[in-house]
Amino acid sequence: MTTHWTRLGAITTIIGAALIGPAFSQDAKPQYGGELVLTGQLDKTMFPGRNTDAGGMDVYLNSCETLVELTPQSEIRPVLAESWTTSEDKKTVTFKLRQGVTFHDGTPFNAEAVAFVFDEAIAKKFLYVSLLEGLQKVVADSEYQASFRLAAPSAALINNLAYRTMCIFSPAAYKAKGEEGLGSNIIGTGPFIQTEYAKGEYALFKKNDKYWQKGKPYLDSIRILFVPDITTRLAMLESGEVDRIAGVPNFDIPRVAKDKNIALRTMPSLQQHYVVINNTVKPLDDPKVRQALNYAVDKAGIVQSVFAGIGATLSQAPTLSPGVFGFADMREPGQATIFPFDIAKAKALLKEAGYEDKGDGLKDAQGKQLSLKLYGRKAGVGDYEIAQLVKTFLEKIGVKVELTVLESATFSAALSVGPKDAKYDLAILSWTVPTADPDEPMMYMTHTKAWKPAGANRMFFSNPETDRLAEEAHVESDPVKRAAIVKQWMAALLKLAPVIYLPTVNLTDATRTYVHGGVYYPANVYDGSFAWIDQAERKKQGISR
Predict the structure, then answer these.
(1) Residue pLDDT, tens place only, 257-283
(2) Which of 20, 200, 333, 464 has the fewest CB atoms within 10 Å distance of its CB?
(3) Strand partners, 19
(4) Is residue 256 within 8 Å of residue 7, measured between CB atoms?
(5) Residue 491 pairs with which residues in a beta bridge?
(6) DSSP string of 128-179?
(7) Nearest Cα to 308, choosing from 259, 257, 254?
(8) What are the residues whose beta carbons fall under 8 Å from the beta carbon of 47, sequence distance 6 or more?
């Protein structure tokens, strides 16, 4: 069966972004020229195999393309692949590749390049390798045909290949420079060629004049300035120093919405805040203690005080949000969220786990105070404020909390180590589901094989039942059966509480109104590859850079 376009369920309703302020033009003819200046955050390497953060994708997607992509209309469409077929036993997926494409270093894009990238991902255990579970090897059948050979059918393979981090980089450049070299100079087939990079400062991408999509891109260049602080980002946008930012502070939205030169957009997302719980540390290895911490946190209070009541919504299920395949509302009847705020229940669970507060702190039977180290940072919308509130909530049940606020890159490094090197008990983070498929959270975020530093399981959570369910969903091709497995997995997470589940974010970005054509995805990734600038409008706004 040949497939060009694949529908992915109900995410369309998610992507229906609400526009506040001047509307983006839909009918104007694109103009060539100009530099688009964005703000971003790159705390790690630029090499896709070692950085799966949304901030990293925002950077390398300008140069490095995938075989397929997920559109804002929730469809899978070909990019470097033209089409694909699946064998009758569903163990071989064969891709017909696009011809006439070259990498930025002049070497050809072909089946050998595709086979090299994915075989290297398996051999060197790239961060996303758990999403390729069951992939035995990729074979170059001919110059422009590559076959993915699987040990068992993979229900999520095509969706996972739309994950930006699985982009096809130049094998020749990789062999010459290694991961470290591509980590500061990514070389793919994309519409822009990376020409400059200053760690912690900026990355510059120049137009690829030999790009395979004729007539594109429109811009001469894209410059990404690395600015962690969202207040600084907003000031730079309002002054005209940059053209677009993500993460407008919610309390500033009413004021920014009055600026006729700025288009403000907000939409529900697939991004959920959470508190990492180090499951290897006592007594956090006890599910009752982890459940208690969940009940002790007032999520509705966070929505109001951190997100002004509009920047986030209460979560309805662990990890998954509406729009992700298999999502089901897992709230108890009559409750507004999972783990609703309930101090009495939290204390009762802690007592069952052997901890009680008699007015002098939460202590075990031997009189040892429960003290936890909480890591936070001043980066994304609300991260620091949430950390402060979580500390306050936990102290109300007698837990002593030591909050450490780290610089963004240091925080990222501290959360990227294995269990023996991890120094945190708790940490404030968020996760998203960029392919709108549950395979990533099941195989990459919570599976035992995905413990850091290999995957994204920073909790070091391990449970045979959730691992089994994840592996079953990974190969189950019947959507009804697969959705039922996903629901069982979510139910198990509610019992095991590997993290403290926090609200789901509403994404907000703000763009100067002369910028058109950029795409903001609910996974908090912005693609400005085919954006363009209305030069007359830009001049009218007094922007001369």
Answers:
(1) 999 999 999 888 888 999 999 999 999
(2) 333
(3) 265
(4) no
(5) none
(6) GGGGGTTEEEEEEEETTEEEEEESS--TTHHHHHTSGGG----HHHHHHHHH
(7) 254
(8) 169, 179, 180, 182, 183, 186
Contacts for 127 with CB less than 8 Å, ≥ 6 apart: 49, 50, 51, 52, 165, 454, 455, 456
Query: CA-CA distances (angstroms) from residue 350 to 158, 276, 286, 403?
Result: 44, 19, 10, 21
Q: What is the DSSP string of 298-346?
A: -HHHHHHHHHTTTSEE--SSSS--TTSTT----PPTT-SSSS---HHHH
Q: How many CB atoms lie within 10 A of CB 4?
A: 13
The answer to whether the pTM exceeds 0.90 is no
Walk across the sheet containing 135-142 and list its strands. 2-3, 81-86, 92-97, 145-150, 135-142
Residues of the chain with pLDDT under 50: 1-24
Token couple for 530: 């085919």
Instruction: List the beta bridge partners of residue 376.
Output: 405
**Contact (CB, 8 A) for 505 and 429:** no
Strand partners, 401: 372
At 3 the pLDDT is 44
Three-state secondary-structure class, residue 505: strand
Q: What angle do CA 215, 218, 224 make, to 5 degrees?
A: 140
Tokens at residue 117, please? 């990238």
φ/ψ (deg, to 5) at 528: -105, 15
Going by the DSSP 8-state scheme, the letter that residue 535 receives in this structure is H
Q: Which residues contact 529 (CB under 8 A, 6 or more apart)?
A: 61, 62, 190, 191, 192, 216, 217, 222
Quick one: which of 433, 380, 426, 386 has its CA closest to 271?
433
pLDDT of residue 518: 94
Residues 6+ apart with CB under 8 A from 355: 283, 289, 362, 363, 364, 370, 398
Residue 356: burial class (beta carbons within 10 Å; 0-12, 13-18, 19+):
middle
**DSSP H helical segments within 16-94, as ranges?**
54-60
Q: Which residue has the tokens 């017909």?
A: 96
Cβ atoms 214, 239 nearer than 8 A: no
- Residue 328 near residue 446, CB atoms below 8 Å: no
Give the torsion sign (CA, 109, 112, 115, 120). negative
DSSP-derived letter for residue 102 is B
